[in-house]
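Support request, please re-run this one:
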Amino acid sequence: MFKLIESDRKEIVRVWNNDKLIWLKEKELIRSERLELFNEVQSITIFNVGYDWDILEIGDVEIYKSDGRRISRDFNVTDSKKVGAIKSIVGLSPYQIIYYNVRKFRGVS
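Re-run finished. Output below.
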């Protein structure tokens, strides 16, 4: 089950039994809401995004893990349509680095 998170990089999972809290866990979904994007012309690298995310939204572009590859805590978006859409939304020139605030993302639960 996926949970939509807005402007909060931590997800708190609670398990209730007859209105009594029996388990609580907090996990970091992404390392920071402010992500560093680097335009490598054919792809875009998102630095230090972390591991426990499933969908990121940059502008109106939803980025799934299947749209690229993970390199340690970084993620490289290789889907050409999404790369082009991200470039036009955020105004990313070739070999330019910018910071972008991610507003919506979903974590793996």
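The radius of gyration is 15 Å. The chain has one domain: 3-107.
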